[in-house]
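// run 5 | inverse folding | seed 20
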């Protein structure tokens, strides 16, 4: 893999913060749509695939099936067992990775131009003809179960699962994407094959490619790679109706430090208020040491090492979330400060200086995301899933700059909702009582 690593380093070195990214929309002869950024400066291609649906497609009682399936895609495919697949990828200096989240199965590929055909054929085997042999299933299952056992003693994992159950009720988002010890232990090969057919289909695929490849070459590659996938997969989950009544749910767990997750409704990615809310969140809790929450909770009071907030725009739900960890004896104060700051920003708004500083940071940092082929490919496929147009890359900073003080403060009044700000606390918090079941 030394040769591959050298090529990747060259790619990063030759692509410093591109001023402009020219995206071309491509449709293969077989009808697969993709975004392409051509760059022939190095003989290297980054390919990103996303299949919408992800672990939310797991049937009732089969939590963890899609996650386990994704973990098996490179554990033997076509005529190769797991070792043979790994050996072939290494010989080609190709790198593949597979992942599953709530809303997507993600496949990333990196390969050299000279080995493109063979690399794509190997990747195709993993998508079209994974073996799912029993030895591999048990090996990957053991790895997943080890992680699940570790999660049972991790307050943050416990909080995340408790929050999902509280917020989503009987929606698929309420089920843990990597499953439970019981559900993963019970999964059969038939369940994994069914998850493969449900998740990897052409009616839900998004593709981006960046590097040494033309539109014509990409079209042929996509038909070769994806043409034999099923036309349709399982139905996508319906819209969730998050339960966010405000208040606190305490999950008792023996630990010296409590973890608190907090959440309220957030804007959809296509809501006219989204960009202003994004900038507002940077000022509130997304801007690291410069954010208000960090200033008030950590710097002034020393209640935590870190506190943050973010907009979580999922396919079936839109949330405004955050997290803090603090000693059991002080987490109650941390929660009170967060609530106060949430309310203060709603009523008082942000200052002109805060807005100007946020704009400077966000517009300056944005070009740094486009530092190499792999990063650009990942951003491009994410934009497609978000329903954005290629022009967004060039227009995004102007959108940030156009936000006025009146607009951002109106968004603060309209969206920040201390009454619905809901906390899930895991630990032994002193002076914090559950108000929610």
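// decoded
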């Amino acid at each position: 893999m030394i040769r591959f690593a050298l090529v990747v380093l060259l790619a990063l070195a030759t692509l410093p913060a591109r001023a402009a990214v020219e995206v071309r929309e491509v449709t293969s002869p077989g009808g697969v749509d993709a975004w392409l950024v051509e760059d022939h400066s190095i003989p290297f291609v980054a390919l990103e695939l996303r299949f919408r649906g992800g672990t939310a497609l797991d049937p009732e009682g089969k939590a963890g099936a899609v996650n386990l399936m994704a973990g098996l895609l490179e554990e033997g495919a076509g005529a190769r067992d797991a070792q043979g697949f790994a050996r072939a990828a290494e010989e080609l200096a190709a790198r593949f990775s597979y992942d599953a989240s709530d809303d997507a199965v993600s496949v990333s590929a990196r390969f050299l131009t000279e080995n493109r055909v063979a690399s794509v054929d190997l990747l195709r085997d993993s998508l079209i003809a994974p073996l799912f042999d029993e030895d591999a299933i048990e090996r990957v299952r053991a790895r997943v179960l080890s992680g699940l056992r570790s999660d049972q003693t991790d307050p943050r994992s416990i909080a995340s699962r408790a929050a999902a159950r509280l917020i989503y009720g009987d929606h698929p988002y309420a089920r843990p994407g990597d499953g439970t010890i019981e559900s993963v232990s019970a999964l059969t090969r038939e369940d994994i094959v069914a998850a493969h057919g449900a998740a990897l289909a052409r009616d839900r695929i998004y593709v981006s490619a960046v590097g040494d490849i033309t539109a014509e070459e990409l079209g042929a590659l996509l038909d070769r790679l994806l043409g034999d996938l099923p036309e349709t997969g399982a139905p996508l989950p319906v819209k969730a109706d998050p339960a966010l009544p405000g208040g606190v749910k305490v999950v008792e767990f023996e630990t010296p430090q409590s973890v608190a997750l907090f959440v309220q409704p957030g804007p959809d990615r296509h809501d006219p208020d989204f960009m202003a809310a994004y900038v507002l969140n940077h000022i509130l809790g997304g801007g690291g040491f410069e954010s208000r929450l960090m200033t008030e909770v950590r710097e002034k009071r020393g209640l935590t090492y870190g506190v943050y907030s973010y907009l979580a725009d999922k396919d079936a739900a839109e949330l405004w979330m955050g997290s803090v960890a603090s000693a059991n004896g002080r987490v109650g104060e941390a929660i009170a400060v967060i609530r106060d700051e949430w309310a203060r920003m709603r009523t008082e708004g942000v200052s002109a200086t805060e807005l100007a500083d946020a704009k400077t940071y966000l517009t300056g940092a944005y070009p740094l995301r486009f530092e190499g082929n792999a990063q650009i490919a990942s951003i491009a496929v994410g934009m497609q899933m978000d329903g954005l147009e290629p022009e967004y890359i060039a227009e995004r900073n102007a959108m940030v700059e156009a936000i006025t003080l009146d607009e951002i403060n109106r968004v603060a009044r309209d969206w920040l909702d201390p009454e619905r700000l809901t906390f899930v606390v895991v630990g032994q918090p002193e002076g914090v009582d559950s108000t929610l079941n």
